[in-house]
Amino acid sequence: MAFGFCIGVALLLSLWSRAETAGIPDGVLRMECHDRYFMIAVDPSFTGDEPHFEAVDETGAYAITRQYAAQCGYSINVHPLPGHVELRASYFSCQTQNKDDEMFTFNFNLNVTQEGKEVTYPLNKTCSPSLPWSPREVTCETNYMEVSVRSEVTCPSGTKKDDWNSLKPAHRSTTSDWQVMFQTDDVQLPPMNISDARKQGYVFLLTEGRLVFRAPYGQPDSFSTEVNGVPVEAVHATIFSRQSWVVLMVDFVAACSMDEGLYHESGYMMWETPEMLYPNLDGQQVNVGLKGELVAQPVAEERGYIVGKQNNTIQICIPENAEGRYRKSAVDEDLYEFYVYHLYLEQILVDEDRVETRIRFLRTLATPLLPSPIFAENQTVLEENMFTVYLGDVPEDVQPVVLQQFSKTDAVLHYILNINYTLTVLPEKDLYYHMESVVALVTDVSPPQFDAVCTESGISFKLDHRPFDYLWEITIDSDLLTSELADQHGYIMSNDSNIQEHILEGIFGTFEIIMRDLETSEVQGSTIKTCLFSTTELIMCSTDGRMTVVADLALAIPNGNPARTNLRDKYCGPKETDGSRALFSFSLNSCGSAIKLNSENVIYQNEIFYSKKFLRPGKVVSDNATERVTMQCTYPLSGLHRLFSVYRFESDAAGIGSLLHTTHPAAGLQNPTIQPTSAYNHALQPRYNHLLQPRLLQPRLLQPRLLPQDELQYHTSLPSTLLLAMSK
Questions:
Q1: Which residue in 585, 634, 574 sits closest to 610, CA to CA?
Q2: Inter-residue contact 550 to 581 (CB < 8 Å)
Q3: What confidence tens digit (pLDDT) does each residue in 217-271 have?
Q4: How far apart are CA 638 and CA 636, in angstroms?
Q5: N or C: which end of the chain has fewer CB atoms below 10 A?
Q6: Greater pLDDT, 114 or 678
Q7: This model's pTM is above 0.85
């Protein structure tokens, strides 16, 4: 198997900024917005099997315990397969900031212990539902039931919307007129006020456009039953308030299938829910999927699912090898396997008025231990006087026990196979067992070497996999190169590889990949590649105080000779020229450069001049015109610690360069009116700096931004700007 990645070169016209996920620790695997919930997945090796989350709002931070999670719309689930802990939060969870039921902002703290100290990582995300809200929606989570209904209902004449708003203070006032009445089976319980119900773990919430009711499973006022042989838990709550002679009443019903699933020997995981959990509603559509993905029934059936009805029960049959399932081998005297499915199911029902109800189920299903037999194939050839036997159907997470030992002293890899021989002593036929170790040596064990190729957009690296490559780690500078690193959008790491030489045809860029000892991190090898990248225009401001410019003078001096140009000091001419471009490279404090200083930056500025008298026939320009190109390098004062203490320029970071094309009267050069020229062909203008940006992206070319002074400004820093793309 070959492993490769590509270093791509892209044009940078503004300073890089980190992505929104900056500061999120590596242990946080994903933060995702789904249609009706927000999800965070964390690595248990980073957090422990019981991570400590806090939900945060303007009133403080609240520890998400098991009880608090069920009451407030959170669920925390440990998934050994695929090996992460998952936090899900309802869009109506307690601490969520809700804007018009269209934008939901989640704020959490993840508390972990690192090196004996408690460390808190804030995790924030804003989500917008991908689907419009139905008049009624029911969610059957793993630890609670939630119902939300549209609050814009038809009320008797004289009833005002403010009557509904009186539900808001009902959470805080023990004297509220709003009351709730629960019904179990056919028994109607005495009413209680909303605040008392909340103390018992129930939540009632009024948003901008919806009424929400939530109840943990196993509440005293809920009830369990069987419908068509399927276990069901249900809760029926009615809230009401007397407003003068009118009684306002809202009915909440949540009923959830508690089926744990059944594995069928035909190779399907089966799960059931009664079709008529909600009376007077007709089923219209079923959507199903795994890992939070929903697809329509026809699409699911194309993927091997079976969605059917039997005895007024909806049956979902998930194929054993469904995409998104997890598989694991296990040993219990013999070899077994089991499968885990994170089911996501949606039912869409309508009443006689075609008013829609959506019901969603989130369930984790697992098969029992299933036999996973391994067979042996005898390929012995008698003429060879030896046995040849192969093992077949070995699962992907099972391998024959061959030990590996690496000797650093000899640079030799030992493969060790322990064999237990069974011998028979004749004629008594007594059995004797003899253990022997067979060792095979691999002597050509050396650090991996990448094959590097220059491309139009960057440098491509490829590594052929060897079974012992795990003995080294691959780094860029001191940063470990992993697929997770490439997935972290906005993560920026420094690269000390630099641009070695500037010529008119372009830039020689060099990139280095380092191989380090896995245990000691000692450098044991590297792959270095230098490539020439062509460019139409560029400006570079080095850390050692040198400005390098390639300027396109095609429009500034049509039919002119770029070799006739000079800087402010007329003795500073170009290093190289061609038909339209000139290359200048000079020290910042030479060639007549002007220096400007403000509270934050020091600016070095110079100009390229070309006098009218050198124009060839055919150029039309006013008699007193002088064409020039202005370039400048800007350095932050904070990085110039030695500028005023020693006679040597040293900057912590490369400067920001800009090129400016102008036309001025020859006498009394005034503030210019800038005209950007068509010479800025950005598809041919890569810019390079020393920042390495690992992202799974193609190199992108950006357009220049027009500054308030109409200046086309290019931001660049040395030695190279590189985009890292990884593939396997």
A1: 574
A2: yes
A3: 999 999 999 999 999 999 999 998 877 777 788 889 999 999 999 999 999 999 9
A4: 5
A5: N
A6: 114
A7: no
Task: Find, among 359, 347, 287, the residue nearest to 140 by Cα.
Answer: 359
At 72, which helix (H) or strand (E)? helix 66-72
pLDDT per residue as tens digits for the range 685-706: 333 222 222 222 222 222 333 3
pLDDT value of residue 500 = 52
Q: 325 vs 141, 203, 306, 341, 620, CA distance in Å?
A: 19, 34, 16, 5, 73
- Provide the token pair at 12: 């940078």
DSSP state of 589: T
CB atoms within 10 A of CB 404: 13
Q: What is the DSSP string of 642-696?
A: TTTTSSS---SSPPEEEEEEEEEESSS---------TT--GGG-----SEEEE-S
Q: Rounded CA gap, 580 and 573, in Å?
A: 15
β-strands 223-227, 179-184: how paired?
unpaired
Give the model's pLDDT for residue 153. 57
pLDDT band at 88 (very low <50, low <70, confident <90, very high): very high
- Do residues 719 and 690 make contact, with C-beta atoms less than 8 angstroms apart? yes
Extract the tokens encoding 403. 């030990």
**What HEC string does 552-576 produce?**
ECCCCCCCCCHHHCECCCCCCCCCE
* Structure-block tokens of residue 587: 């020290």
SS3 214: strand
